[in-house]
Amino acid sequence: MPPGLSAKELQDLYDRYAPGMYRRAFALLQREADAWDAVQESCIRVLQSAAAFRREARPMTFIYRVTTNVCLNMLRTRALRDVAPEDAGSEGAVDALAATECRDFLMKLARELDERALTVATLHYLDGMSQEEIAQVLGLSRKTIVRDVQRISALARALGEPEGIRRGAG
Amino acid sequence: MSEHLSDLVMDEVVAGGMSPPHLDSCVACRERLALLESHAEKVRAGPHFARVRARVLSERAAPPRKPGGAWLTRWLLVPVLATLATVVVVRGARAVDPVTSPEGPSPEAPFAHPGTQEPLLGMRIKGPPQVELLRLKDGEINPLLQEGDEVALRLRSGGHRYALVVAMDSGKEVEALWPPEGRQSGELAAAQPAPLFQVTQGDFVVHALYSETPLRLDTVRDWLSTLKPECRAAPMSAACLSLAGVPPGVAHAAVALQVEARP
Predict the structure, then answer these.
(1) Given CB 3.0 to 4.6 Å as the disulfide criterion, which of A17, A96, A117, A151 pairs with A88?
(2) CA R_g for chain B
(3) Is there a contact between A67 and A25 (Cβ–Cβ < 8 Å)?
(4) Residue B195 domain-assigned (yes or no)
(5) Nearest CA to CA, how far is B109 from chain A (Å)?
């Protein structure tokens, strides 16, 4: 492992960011064990990319990017298995009903979108991020995100976007 | 702009960042922040928080994994349970992964090819036979690999019942990758651990032979020995998928990969 973060720094990073990572991972994965696996994997990736993480002007965007990607990859792997979501009530759930509805909708979108668009959709619908924030998290231009969100929104309407689902602002 | 703060901003505050002035004047955002803070405390007090922290710290302390003697060695450290019966995830459009680089997201759709209407979980997705290697650290499919990269083997059987997966190096040496016993094809309907590997330096081609009855490794070796030299390099032409002597009903898929030395 490259000596990018000391044990103390890594522990501080974990204590600071792991609860938020876990909340978002649980919202996407809907299973406690999987969500903790995602936290662990995300932390290891941050550790492996310590230099890039240090360069981030806004570290939380890096954390969101890594966690989102890890979770989407896990959902893809889970497509190899038949895993049912856990019942609400786990320590992971903050907006249990909304998150479940949102995740189900994202899975519907996943059949139609490439990965970048799905990542954008996740940040837009699950996290309620603005297009500016999504651009920051993904390191892409605002223009690109605006185009992506327009395309995703059109598709979402066609697929029957749930009424209660929250979405990011422009 | 939204009238309320996003969770990104809220998480920054929960993680000890600056509190935006909006919080002073917005009851809804203060309530949301209190909910997230309370949730974070609950998570920290839960049984898994310390356990995962210990694992993360132990990962930092662990020595780098050494590649094995072969160019592609089995990686047994992560027993991910997956069934090859449904190893049918298909690729999406190529892009760049956002995890370790800022350029953008990674190359494939997490569940299915854009445009497919197939259900996602536990379902077979129809499509031509295919074999892919997924790099675990970023989800890239068939990337230019570096020595030590950990990869997962993914198969799309095209509806065939059996598969035999082998790797051939530039010296035409053939090594069985899946099933683990490697002497003949394995049944894809049987639950198997997802095959994970760690690569070492050198180019190689992974061949998957799909069939309705088991094929013997020796037979497959004979077929592969008929390949022309240009079929052992990346990229491969479609003509390389034609193996002499392969009977009807046997499907062949292959992917050529390059493994660079780690700088």
Answers:
(1) A96
(2) 23
(3) yes
(4) yes
(5) 4
Sorted by sequence, the CB contacts under 8 Å of residue B261 that are 6+ apart come out as B146, B147, B201
ipTM score of complex: 0.84
What class, spelled out in words, does domain A1-92 have in CATH?
A: mainly alpha
The total number of residues shown for chain A amounts to 170
What's at A49, amino acid-wise? S
Residues B153 and B133: beta-carbon distance below 8 Å: yes
CB A47 within 8 A of CB A84: no
Residues of B in contact with A18 (CB under 8 A): 43-44, 49, 52-53
B109-131 tens-digit pLDDT: 222 222 222 222 222 334 577 88
- What is the C-alpha to C-alpha distance for residues B194 and B201, in angstroms, rounded to an integer? 23
Q: Which of B81, B86, B97 sits opposite A69 (nearest CB)?
A: B97
**Residue B238 per-residue DSSP state:** G
> Chain A partners of B7 at a C-beta cutoff of 8 Å?
24, 127-129
A95-170 carries CATH number 1.10.10 = yes
- Which pLDDT does position A79 carry in this prediction? 54
Task: Please check whether residues B220 and B105 belong to one and the same domain.
Answer: yes
